[in-house]
Amino acid sequence: MKQVNILKNLFYEANRIVIMTGAGMSVPSGIPDFRGANGLYQKNPEEILSYTYFKKYPEKFYAFYRQNMIYLNAKPNIGHKTLAHLESMGKVKTIITQNIDGLHQSAGSKNVIELHGSIHKNYCMKCRKYYSISKIMATDEVPICECGGIIKPDIILYEESLSHDAIENSLKSIEKADLLIVIGTSLLVYPAASLIHYFNGSNLVIINKDITPYDDEAQLVIQQPLENILTPELFKFKDKVFHI
């Protein structure tokens, strides 16, 4: 495939690669694409996943959250693992993800910026003590801190702003990148999608099964399943291939 060979050459020539990932990155791991035919947004979750709803109806929020947002049996797929190995080789400098599943870290990636937070981090709204996901899953009720406060998932709900540090660190990484690769995202969610405007490098690559608003600005667009593209066999540098 000509596109794959072009991608391989871009990887080989680049020194500072930054990756941006969306929900499509985790689809091969069994987590539905939120905006797909069977995705979460077919259930109109905007109200339930809002900060106002969480504060007013925490029991209903958690019932929905546990059923639709937590996939603890999901494992990193070949794409996650490939990116982690490319980071260990010094090629990938930063992964900026909209996902909250923690699969990049599970695969071994170290420098991951989670724009929308993580299901694995939770905090008491009263004393700010942090808890793991096990605290959330240990009960069917609203999880309560030992101080009596309600525990909230450390994810960005509707009506909440993204972390200032996450945005700043993302901007700094993208501005320094010579290759930006966007994987598995429609680039319709803002402000995450706007980060692409801060890329000053030469090559923008978009790997997504559907079209995005930024396809015309990319030097390479691959509309193929990522598990067919991000494989160890593709990224073989100077006759050295890593194995997963």
Number of strands: 9
Low-confidence stretches: 238-244
The fourth-level CATH homologous superfamily of the largest domain is TPP-binding domain
Q: Which geometry do the CA atoms define? A: elongated
* Main sheet record: 6 strands, parallel
How large a portion of the residues is in β-strands, by DSSP E? 15-25%
Structure overview:
- The chain folds into two domains: 1-30 and 77-116 and 163-236, TPP-binding domain (Rossmann fold), CATH 3.40.50; 32-70 and 121-155, SIR2/SIRT2 'Small Domain', CATH 3.30.1600.10.
- The protein is 27% helix and 17% strand.
- It has helices spanning 2-13, 51-56, 58-68, 78-88, 103-107, 133-137, 164-176, 226-229, and strands at 17-21, 92-97, 112-114, 117-124, 130-131, 151-155, 179-183, 203-207, 220-222.
- Strands 3-2-1-7-8-9 form a six-stranded parallel sheet, with helices on both faces. It has a three-stranded antiparallel sheet with strand order 5-4-6.
- The longest helix is centred in the last third of the chain and has 13 residues, at 164-176.
- It is elongated, with a radius of gyration of 19 Å.
- It starts with a helix and ends in a 15-residue tail after the last helix.
- Residues 238-244 have low confidence and may be disordered.
Topology overview:
Layout: H1 2-13, E1 17-21, H2 51-56, H3 58-68, H4 78-88, E2 92-97, H5 103-107, E3 112-114, E4 117-124, E5 130-131, H6 133-137, E6 151-155, H7 164-176, E7 179-183, E8 203-207, E9 220-222, H8 226-229
Parallel strand pairs: 1-2, 1-7, 2-3, 7-8, 8-9
Antiparallel strand pairs: 4-5, 4-6
